[in-house]
């Protein structure tokens, strides 16, 4: 009762990274609130799945194992979560802002009439005073996210409804094992009691999942381009530099929207969050929805024609110039200095 | 064959993709007046899917439903110009301050009043909030199944809908039964342009709240041509529990809003010359950042 819950996503028997990141955050929140961390895994052939999650400090693992529960479809997963939450009354429920979490979260929040905040970049515990109704709230979940196209940062709370629900994108939170010896309990859910036959009205008739080939999340060096790169051809210069210095290519949302780069390379609030040792921002103006995803980079080089671009505030080196001129020089100088 | 009854959920949004320097006021609040109001991009993808079903299944009727102030009737006109049959503007002060859940509640109450519906199609998410919540929340409130992240509604026949979904890491084809809610991704085909014939027909289409200062001639035009009257519903036209509406019905509250402040740090400014680039590369190699 009154614990922190994390919904664990499963793909081919593996718990998703985003879920492990949320368990790490969930552990921290549970410590702050002096309550337990629980997680629920829904799928098929889940024997031993608790071994993947318990090291992250999980006190109780709920397992719903049934061949009809994998691959994911909305309704049976919703039914299980709704009933379990009604029974267990968690104060906080977290899930990944993935194509599963963003399908499931709103459905569950609608059924329970609990508030849900999407794509949070930070989650902390804090108090709230409702001056108008003269009410004090202790230990609420502050759900912090950029809003309005990233021009503002909003702190959202759910004072009266439980659970307080939030989704977080992959790579935003850090993943950290508490102890390999951490011991929690396993509870098996009697699936028949939680789902209805009509929950299986949607059938998956074909499915092709691929492992993400692009791995910008763990790249040590990222060369990222924005709308200011100007063209797909110019974007090739970024690829060339990245190849030469051993990095990956990233992009801002504007660059992805303009078709310069694929969505899996998108960095920022609606993409991934990265923490490389070197971030080279090319033609990126530096709106907060982008910088939210790269501000923890150890070193930033900003290349921009606008010497007042907001990205420069994050930069260790500012180069004012056209990337078509700057990047070839960087490539040339790198080669000359590493001969 | 009897056609489908389709409702497209659409939202008028500030164009947050084109935020200029004057978009923020001196006090740090958003200057909405400086942002053009547009048809939410993924809702246009949703409309296109609806229009394709209309092209394919004779007798299909496409209705746009939007919730917003009187000026949101503009996007209903945009829909009519592209081939939608009619639209409803849901507009009332009672809805002010709604979060996604209260919005979904108001929309679902409206949809219940609209009679039998086969498919509700919406954009996956709106660019002013990026939450992707309203589609699934409406589906839950109506007790309909949902298919999110749709890229193509392949068919809608004999009570079955087949949809191709585009997920982060792959594609999926799923089948489900109508009535159904489908939310559509930006990766779906773009919406067709305005059709000149429909623009001529509907350019004077107006909702009631846009007719406040209309001349007698203009009112007469609208009574002679009923298709020019965009349906406008208030809270009195639907059955609701007032506790679930607007700010009161919204479990999430905004505690605080901060303008984004950039913290300046000391940066080394370099010229785009071979000499400066050479120095930079030497530094990066020396401190093991690269190489």
TrEMBL record, chain A:
Q: Which cofactor does it need?
A: FAD
What InterPro entries would the database entry show?
DHS-like_NAD/FAD-binding_dom, ETF_a/b_N, ETF_a/FixB, ETF_alpha_N, ETF_asu_C, ETF_asu_C_CS, Rossmann-like_a/b/a_fold
One Pfam match, by short name? ETF
Kindly indicate whether the keyword Transport belongs to this entry.
yes
User: What keywords sit in the KW lines?
Assistant: Electron transport, FAD, Flavoprotein, Transport
Chain sites annotated for binding FAD: 252-253, 266-270, 283-290, 304, 322-323
Q: Which residues cross the membrane?
A: none
Cofactor binding note from Swiss-Prot or TrEMBL: Binds 1 FAD per dimer.
Q: Which domain of life is it from?
A: Bacteria
Do the record's keywords include Transferase?
no
Q: Which GO terms describe its biological process?
A: fatty acid beta-oxidation using acyl-CoA dehydrogenase
Q: What are the residue boundaries of the Electron transfer flavoprotein alpha/beta-subunit N-terminal domain, all occurrences included?
A: 4-204
Q: Which GO terms describe its molecular function?
A: electron transfer activity; flavin adenine dinucleotide binding
Say which family it is in.
Answer: Belongs to the ETF alpha-subunit/FixB family.
**What name appears for this protein in its UniProt entry?**
Electron transfer flavoprotein alpha subunit apoprotein
Q: Native species of this protein?
A: Marinifilum flexuosum
Lineage of origin: Bacteria, Pseudomonadati, Bacteroidota, Bacteroidia, Marinilabiliales
From TrEMBL, chain B:
Q: Which InterPro entries match?
A: ETF_a/b_N, ETF_b, ETF_beta_N, Rossmann-like_a/b/a_fold
**Start and end of every Electron transfer flavoprotein alpha/beta-subunit N-terminal domain?**
27-215
Keywords on record = Electron transport, Transport
- List, alphabetically, the SMART domains matched: ETF
Top-level taxon of origin: Bacteria
Say if the entry is tagged with keyword Transport: yes
Q: CDD domains attached here?
A: ETF_beta (cd01714)
In alphabetical order, the GO MF annotations are: electron transfer activity
Q: Which PANTHER family match?
A: ELECTRON TRANSFER FLAVOPROTEIN BETA-SUBUNIT, PROTEIN FIXA
Q: What is this protein called?
A: Electron transfer flavoprotein beta subunit
């Amino acid at each position: 009762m009154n614990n922190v819950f994390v919904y664990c996503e499963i793909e081919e028997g593996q718990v998703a990274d985003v879920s492990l990141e949320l368990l790490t955050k969930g552990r921290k929140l549970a410590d702050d609130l002096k309550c337990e961390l629980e997680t629920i895994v829904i799928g098929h052939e889940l024997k031993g799945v608790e071994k993947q999650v318990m090291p992250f400090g999980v006190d109780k693992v709920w397992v719903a194992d049934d061949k009809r529960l994998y691959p994911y479809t909305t309704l049976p997963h919703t039914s299980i979560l709704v009933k379990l939450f009604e029974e267990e009354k968690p104060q906080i429920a977290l899930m990944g802002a993935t194509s599963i979490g963003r399908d499931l979260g709103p459905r569950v929040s609608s059924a329970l009439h609990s508030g849900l905040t999407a794509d949070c970049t930070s989650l902390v515990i804090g108090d709230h005073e409702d001056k108008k109704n003269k009410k004090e709230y202790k230990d609420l979940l502050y759900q912090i996210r950029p809003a309005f196209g990233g021009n503002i940062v909003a702190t959202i709370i759910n004072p009266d409804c439980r659970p307080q629900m939030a989704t977080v994108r992959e790579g935003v939170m850090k993943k950290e094992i508490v102890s390999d010896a951490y011991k929690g309990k396993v509870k098996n859910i009697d699936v028949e009691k939680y789902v209805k036959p009509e929950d299986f009205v949607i059938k998956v008739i074909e499915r092709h999942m691929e492992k993400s080939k692009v791995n910008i999340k763990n790249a040590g060096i990222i060369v990222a381009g924005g709308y200011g790169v100007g063209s797909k051809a110019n974007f090739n210069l970024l690829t060339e530099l990245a190849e030469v210095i051993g990095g990956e290519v990233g992009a801002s949302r504007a660059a992805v929207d303009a078709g310069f780069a694929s969505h899996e390379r998108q960095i920022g609030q609606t993409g991934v969050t990265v923490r490389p040792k070197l971030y080279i921002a090319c033609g990126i103006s530096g709106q907060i929805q982008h910088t939210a995803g790269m501000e923890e980079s150890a070193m930033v080089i900003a290349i921009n024609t606008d010497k007042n671009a907001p990205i420069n505030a994050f930069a260790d080196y500012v180069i004012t110039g056209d990337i078509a001129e700057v990047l070839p020089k960087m490539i040339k100088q790198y080669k000359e200095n590493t001969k | 064959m009897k056609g489908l009854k389709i409702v497209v959920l659409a939202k008028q949004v500030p164009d947050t993709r084109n935020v200029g320097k004057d978009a923020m006021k001196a006090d740090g609040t958003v200057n909405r007046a400086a942002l053009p109001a547009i048809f939410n991009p993924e809702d246009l993808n949703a409309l296109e899917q609806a229009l394709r079903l209309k092209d394919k299944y004779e007798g299909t009727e496409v209705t746009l439903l939007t919730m917003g102030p009187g000026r949101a009737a503009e996007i209903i006109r945009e829909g009519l110009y592209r081939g939608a049959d009619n639209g409803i503007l849901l507009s009332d002060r009672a809805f002010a301050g709604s979060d996604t859940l209260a919005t979904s509640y108001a929309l679902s109450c409206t949809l219940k009043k609209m009679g039998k519906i086969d498919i509700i199609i919406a954009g996956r998410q709106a660019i002013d909030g990026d939450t992707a919540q309203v589609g699934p929340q409406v589906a839950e409130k109506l007790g309909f199944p949902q298919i999110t992240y749709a890229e193509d509604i392949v068919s809608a026949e004999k009570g079955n809908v087949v949809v191709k979904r585009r997920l982060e890491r792959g594609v999926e084809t799923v089948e489900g039964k109508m009535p159904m809610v489908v939310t559509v991704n930006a990766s779906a085909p773009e919406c067709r342009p305005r059709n000149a014939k429909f623009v001529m027909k509907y350019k004077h289409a107006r909702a009631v709240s846009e007719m406040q200062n209309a001349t007698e001639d203009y009112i007469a035009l609208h009574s002679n041509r009923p298709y020019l009257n965009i349906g406008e519903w208030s809270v009195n036209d639907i059955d609701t529990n007032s506790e679930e509406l607007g700010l009161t019905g919204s479990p999430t509250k905004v505690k605080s809003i901060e303008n984004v402040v950039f913290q300046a740090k000391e940066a080394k400014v370099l010229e785009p010359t071979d000499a400066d680039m050479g120095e930079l590369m030497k530094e990066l190699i020396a401190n093991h950042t690269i190489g």
